[in-house]
C-alpha cells in the first residue's frame, strides 16, 4: 500500500530538496529562513521542526521523545498504519476497553475499504479497526451492538499512597473492569481488583501491599444483562463510531467510498456538540486536521447566560459545520482564547467564529486565520445558524479589532505621519494610485520610541510627494487583514499598482536619508527629494513629538 504522505524537515540552513526512497514516505527538507512564507503558513517557530503530511492532514513531531531514527520511524508508522483488523469478538472487547473514540468498519468479503483506510490516518485521538469477511463481520457487528447499548464511563482513580482507594460512581448498578484503561508504562507491573457496592467503587492493588504512583482510570459500565436483551443491530457493510459523549454511538449514513464525506462525519462526532474550554479541548479543536473546522466561541465572564443557552440550542444544527465551545475569562487558556478572539477583558458575553488555521486566498498569498463577530443584540438560535450559513457562503466580513477612525480635526493637527486603524488599513494600503509606507509599532516598544522622530523627519521631508503616503499603525490596538506582525517596529511598503499589492519589508538603517534611498528603489512612482519652488520654505521646521500620542509619551 502506497501512502500519499511526506515528512517535512525544517531547518534554518537547509536547501530545499527532496529525497525519494523505496519506502512509501517522501522525505523533504526546506530552509524557512529563505522561504519564510512556508514557515509562516505552517507555524514553524523553532528549528529543527518536523511535520508529517498525510492526505492533507498535518502532524507535528514531539521532539521530547527523542530525534533518533527509531523514534521518527515509530511516529511515522503511527500515522500511516492506523487501521487494525478485528479477528473475533475477543479482539473487539479488548479494543473497546482500551479506547474511548473508536471507528469500526464492518465489511464483507471483497469489500473496497480504501476510503476507510485513508481516513484512518487523519486522526491522533480516534482509533480505527475493521472486521473483514461475511462471517466475522456479522459476529462482531452483533457484539458491537451489545456494547453500544451499554452506558460506560471512564472513572478517574488517580494515585494512592495506600493499597486501596475508594471513588464514588455516577449511579447505582455499574460494574468496573480490573485493568486500567489508560496506557501504563511497560515497567509498571501493578495489578488491580475493582469491587462495586452501590455507588462506591473500591480499587485494590493485588500485586503488592502498597500504593501506586500512576494516574489510573477504570472503565465502568451499566448492567450488561439489559444490553443483551435490547441492543441496536448494525448492518454489514457499515461504519460505526463509538464515543463517550452525546448519543454515544452512530452509524455512518453517507457514501462509504467518499473520503471527504466520511472525514467530515467523524470530525463532527469526535468531540461533544458543546464543549467547555480547557487544555484538552484546545488540543482537540485547534489541532490541524483534514477539515480544519472553525470554532464558534461563546465567551463570557459569567456562566449560564442567555447567550450560552441560545448557542446550546443552535448547536445540534451546527454539528459537522463548526465546533461549539463555551469559555470563561479566568484560566490562562481562557484568557488566551479571549485574546485570540479579540475579546476585551471587560466585555459582556461575546459570540464569535474563529478559523483555527490560515489559508491561501485566490491570489496564492497566505493569510492568517480570521474571526467573525455576531451582534449579541436580539440574538436567537435561528440567527446563530444563519450566521454560520452566511460564513459558509462567503457573505461575512472578518472582524478586526480597531481603534476609532481619526476625526478630521485629528488628521489636520496630527502632523505629517498619517494614522491608520484596523478598519481603514486595507482601503489605505491597497490604494492602487499611491505608494503607501506603514510603520507597525507598539506604544511600549523602546525601538519604536527611538525611531519615531526619525520617521517624522522622513515624512516631513517627503510631504510634498503626493503619490507617497507615510503612515503608522498601533499593531497592539488594531488588527489588519493579511499581515502577521512578529516584531516592532515593522516597516512595510505597499507600492502603487493593482490590488492585492505585493509588500516590501524595510530591513536597513532607520536614518531618514537611508530610507529615502530605499523608497526611490521600491516605490512605483518616481519623485523628487525637494519640493517645487512654490512649496519651499518647510526647511527648519522643528521636529514634532513622535509616533506616540501625547498621553503615551511617558509610558
Question: What do these coordinates show?
Answer:
This is Thioredoxin domain-containing protein. One of its GO terms (cellular component) is endoplasmic reticulum. The chain has 555 residues and is α/β, with parallel strands linked by helices. The protein folds into 5 domains: 79 residues, no CATH class; 93 residues, Glutaredoxin (3-Layer(aba) Sandwich); 75 residues; 122 residues, Glutaredoxin; 115 residues, Glutaredoxin (3-Layer(aba) Sandwich), CATH 3.40.30.10. The strands form 7 sheets. A 5-stranded mixed beta sheet has the order 2-3-1-4-5, covered by helices on one side. α9 packs across α11 and α14 packs across α15. The N terminus and C terminus are likely disordered.
Describe the structure concisely.
With 555 residues, the chain is an alpha/beta fold. The protein has five domains: 2-80, no CATH class; 82-150 and 229-252, Glutaredoxin, CATH 3.40.30; 152-226; 272-393, 3-Layer(aba) Sandwich (Glutaredoxin); 408-522, Glutaredoxin, CATH 3.40.30.10.
What keywords describe this structure?
about 550 residues, alpha/beta, Glutaredoxin, 5-stranded mixed sheet, about 25% strand, disordered N terminus, Thioredoxin domain-containing protein
Amino acid at each position: 500500500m502506497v501512502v500519499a504522505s511526506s515528512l517535512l524537515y525544517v531547518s534554518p540552513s537547509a536547501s530545499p530538496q527532496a529525497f525519494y526512497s523505496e519506502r512509501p514516505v517522501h522525505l523533504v527538507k526546506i530552509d524557512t529562513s529563505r522561504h519564510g512564507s512556508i514557515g509562516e503558513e505552517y507555524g514553524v517557530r523553532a528549528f529543527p521542526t518536523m511535520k508529517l503530511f498525510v492526505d492533507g492532514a498535518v502532524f507535528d513531531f514531539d521532539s521530547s521523545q527523542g530525534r533518533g531514527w527509531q523514534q521518527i520511524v515509530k511516529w511515522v508508522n503511527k500515522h500511516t498504519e492506523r487501521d487494525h483488523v478485528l479477528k473475533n469478538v475477543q479482539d473487539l472487547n479488548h479494543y473497546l476497553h482500551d479506547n474511548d473514540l473508536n471507528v469500526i468498519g464492518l465489511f464483507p468479503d471483497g469489500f473496497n475499504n480504501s476510503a476507510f483506510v485513508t481516513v484512518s490516518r487523519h486522526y491522533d485521538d480516534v482509533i480505527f479497526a475493521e472486521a473483514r469477511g461475511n462471517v466475522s463481520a456479522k459476529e462482531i457487528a452483533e457484539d458491537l451492538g451489545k456494547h453500544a447499548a451499554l452506558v460506560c464511563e471512564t472513572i478517574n482513580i488517580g494515585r494512592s499512597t495506600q493499597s486501596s482507594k475508594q471513588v464514588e460512581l455516577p449511579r447505582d448498578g455499574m460494574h468496573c473492569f480490573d485493568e486500567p484503561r489508560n496506557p501504563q508504562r511497560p515497567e509498571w507491573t501493578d495489578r488491580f481488583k475493582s469491587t462495586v457496592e452501590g455507588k462506591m467503587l473500591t480499587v485494590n492493588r493485588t500485586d503488592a501491599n502498597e500504593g501506586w504512583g500512576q494516574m489510573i482510570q477504570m472503565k465502568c459500565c451499566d448492567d450488561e444483562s439489559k444490553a443483551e436483551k435490547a441492543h441496536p443491530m448494525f448492518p454489514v457493510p457499515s461504519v460505526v463510531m463509538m464515543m463517550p459523549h452525546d448519543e454515544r454511538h452512530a452509524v455512518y449514513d453517507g457514501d462509504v467510498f467518499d473520503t471527504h464525506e466520511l472525514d467530515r462525519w467523524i470530525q463532527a462526532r469526535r468531540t461533544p456538540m458543546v464543549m467547555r474550554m480547557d487544555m484538552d479541548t484546545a488540543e482537540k479543536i485547534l489541532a490541524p486536521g483534514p477539515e480544519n473546522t472553525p470554532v464558534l466561541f461563546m465567551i463570557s465572564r459569567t456562566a449560564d447566560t442567555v447567550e450560552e443557552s441560545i448557542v446550546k440550542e443552535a448547536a445540534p444544527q451546527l454539528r459537522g459545520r463548526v465546533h461549539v465551545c463555551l469559555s470563561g475569562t479566568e484560566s490562562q487558556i481562557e484568557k488566551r482564547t479571549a485574546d485570540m478572539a479579540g475579546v476585551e477583558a471587560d466585555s459582556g458575553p461575546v459570540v464569535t467564529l474563529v478559523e483555527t488555521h490560515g489559508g491561501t486566498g485566490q491570489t496564492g498569498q497566505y493569510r492568517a486565520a480570521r474571526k467573525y463577530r455576531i451582534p449579541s443584540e436580539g440574538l436567537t438560535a435561528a440567527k446563530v445558524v444563519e450566521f454560520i450559513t452566511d460564513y459558509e457562503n462567503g457573505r461575512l466580513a472578518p472582524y478586526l479589532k480597531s481603534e476609532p477612525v481619526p476625526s478630521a480635526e485629528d488628521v489636520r493637527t496630527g502632523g505629517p505621519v498619517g494614522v491608520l486603524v484596523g478598519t481603514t488599513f486595507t482601503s489605505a494600503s491597497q490604494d492602487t494610485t499611491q505608494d503607501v509606507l506603514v510603520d507597525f509599532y507598539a506604544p511600549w516598544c523602546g525601538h519604536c520610541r527611538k525611531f519615531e522622530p526619525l520617521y517624522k523627519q522622513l515624512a516631513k521631508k517627503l510631504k510634498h510627494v503626493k503619490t507617497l503616503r507615510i503612515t503608522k499603525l498601533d499593531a497592539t490596538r488594531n488588527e489588519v487583514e493579511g499581515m502577521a506582525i512578529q516584531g516592532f517596529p515593522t516597516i512595510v511598503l505597499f507600492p502603487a499598482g493593482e490590488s492585492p499589492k505585493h509588500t516590501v519589508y524595510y530591513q536597513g538603517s532607520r536614518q531618514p536619508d537611508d530610507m529615502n534611498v530605499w523608497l526611490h528603489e521600491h516605490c512605483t512612482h518616481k519623485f523628487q527629494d525637494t519640493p517645487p519652488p512654490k512649496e519651499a520654505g518647510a526647511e527648519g521646521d522643528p521636529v514634532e513629538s513622535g509616533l506616540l500620542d501625547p498621553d503615551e509619551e511617558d509610558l
